[in-house]
Specification:
With 129 residues, the protein is mainly beta. Helices cover 7% and strands 51% of the residues. It has 1 helix and 11 strands; from the N terminus they run H-E-E-E-E-E-E-E-E-E-E-E. The protein has a 5-stranded mixed β-sheet with strand order 4-11-10-6-8, with no helix packed on it. Strands 3-5-9-7 form a 4-stranded antiparallel β-sheet, with no helix packed on it. A two-stranded antiparallel sheet has the order 1-2. Strand 10 (102-112) and strand 11 (118-127) form a beta hairpin. It starts with a helix and ends with a strand.
């Protein structure tokens, strides 16, 4: 069963869903966001973070990514990913020397020029120096 589904996807078969504007819209007009499941960063250091915008084959819109958290710093935290841009965005997680040890939740929200917003959350664990 799994091999059959992989074969259908590889050959370009598309499923459809009802469009909000009427008619049938291909489901590959959607997008999703991939983030690390978790990161561990020591106090007083920083590390790279990769956020990936996964576009369906027919998704050709710009997406505004907004990254929010408290207690740690992620830069840049507002990124416009144009339809023609690469889907990977590299950010930096910076943890102050006096940051509290523990887990911090980071939300990444993607807002396309048209269509529905999507978001995902991941955890950054801050460890002692």
């Amino acid at each position: 069963m799994i091999m059959t589904l992989a074969l259908l996807t590889a050959t370009g078969c598309h499923s459809t869903q009802e469009s909000r504007t009427g008619g049938i819209a291909p489901t590959n007009e959607a997008f999703s966001i991939t983030v690390p499941k978790s990161n561990s960063v020591k106090q007083g250091t920083n590390t790279a973070l990769t956020v990936v915008l996964n576009r369906g084959g027919d998704f050709k819109r710009d997406v505004q990514l907004d990254i929010t958290t408290t207690g740690i710093t992620i830069t840049p935290n507002h990124i416009l990913v144009k339809a023609s841009d690469k889907p990977e965005v590299i950010c930096q997680i910076a943890v102050a020397r006096d940051a509290s040890i523990g887990d911090y939740h980071v939300t990444v929200t993607g807002t396309p020029t048209t269509g529905e917003t999507t978001s995902t959350i991941f955890t950054v664990s801050v460890a002692a120096q």
